[in-house]
Please model this.
Amino acid sequence: MESVIKSLVRTARAQTQIGALRGSLLEVTDLFTAAMANIGRFSKLGSDMTEGLQKNNLIDFLRIKKNLEKVLIFFAEIDGEDINQLDEYLEAVWRVFEFPEEVHMSYNAYLDWICDLSWLDSNGYVFAILNADSLIAQCPKDRKMILRSLEGIVIPWWEGEVERHVVEGKAKPFNVYLVD
Model:
C-alpha cells in the first residue's frame, strides 16, 4: 500500500511539472507566433519573396531581427562581399553556425550539419546573407547551387521533413534572408 501511495505522489508531482512545462511552452509558442507574424508584415516592406528565399533591404532585416531575438531564434549572418569561392562560403557558414567539427569540411558535410543544428538551443533559425548579390558573383554555378540547396533541401527539411526522418525531430522555422 505504501508503494502505491508513493507512486501516486510521484505521478502527481510529474503531472504538476508537465503542466508547468506546457504553460511555459505555450507562452514561448505565442511569442514565436507573434514574431513570425511580424516577419510576414516586415518582409513585405519594400522587399519580395524569391522562391522561398526572402530578399530584404538592410533596414527591414534589422527590424525582423530585433523582433525575433526575443523568442530564442538563432541568427547566423555572413557577408557576401567577403565570399568569392565555395570554400570561403563553407568556412563562413561553419563559423557562424558553430558546426562542431571542421575535419571534413565539404559541401555534403555542410548539408548534413545545417540539417542537424542539434547543438544550438533554439526555437528556429535565421540565416542572413548580407550583400547577397555579391556572394560568389564570379562563379554563378556555385552561387546557384548554394541558393537552390537552401531553398530545395534546407528549408523543406526544417519545415517538416525532419519530423519524418529523425527520432523526436521537430520542425522549426529556418528563414533565409538575402539582404542587399
